[in-house]
């Protein structure tokens, strides 16, 4: 399973979580957001895939503009999640609506990545794809050992052994 397989798998899993009845207990939302923002967006996309695409797609201005715009969604999501958690802890009336807003933004963002960014994966040299996949596998294993990554990613412990291969 290479980095693109893992990202697409996690997007599919996020689509399924979005269908789970809401509002969620705050702790569940916090854990899910940790999986989305820390493990998926930060450690796989911001730290591995996006820098690689920026360096290899130099000169592809339209692509790079889309990448910057889409990458900026990660900060927006993190801010929205922070506010949502705060409202949830306070028991505020807006908590359920903020969760809905979070899922709408997340789904729009993931669809944009699949339509405009992930499509460049197969243009990368094989050595780059292998290196990125190995680094992503290390990150995913670190997430699995430090929090409820397996629960939210839907991966089994044994599947971690296939990552990066
Ligand atoms: Fe993302
Ligand atoms: Fe993503």
Description:
The protein is mainly α and 165 residues long. The chain has one domain (3-162). 76% of the residues lie in helices and 0% in strands. It has six helices and no strands. The protein has helices at 3-17, 26-56, 61-90, 95-117, 126-146, 149-153. The longest helix is centred in the N-terminal third of the chain and has 31 residues, at 26-56. It is globular and about 50 Å long. The relative contact order is 0.19. The mean pLDDT is 97. Bound molecules: fe (ii) ion (FE2) (2 copies). One fe (ii) ion is lined by residues 41, 45, 74, 109, 113.
Which helices and strands, and how do they pair?
Elements: H1 3-17, H2 26-56, H3 61-90, H4 95-117, H5 126-146, H6 149-153
The structure holds fe (ii) ion (2 copies).
Protein name: No similarity
InterPro entries: Hemerythrin-like
Domain Hemerythrin-like: 28-120
Key terms for this structure?
0% strand; 76% helix; Hemerythrin-like; 165 residues; binds fe (ii) ion; globular; mainly alpha; No similarity
Described by strand count, sense and barrel closure, the largest sheet is: none
User: Which radius of gyration do the C-alpha atoms yield?
Assistant: 16 Å
Bound molecules: fe (ii) ion
Quaternary arrangement of the chains shown?
single chain
User: Level of helix content?
Assistant: over 70%
The count of strands amounts to: 0
Order of helices and strands: HHHHHH
Low-confidence stretches: none
Percent strand? under 5%
What form results from the Cα inertia axes? globular
The total tally of domains equals 1
Please tally the helical runs, counting DSSP H or I stretches of 4 or more residues: 6
How far from one another are the termini?
6 Å
- What is the arithmetic mean of pLDDT? 97
Assign the structural class, choosing from mainly alpha, mainly beta, alpha/beta, alpha+beta, or little secondary structure. mainly alpha
Domain Hemerythrin-like: 28-120
Organism: Conexivisphaera calida
Pfam families: Hemerythrin
Protein name: No similarity
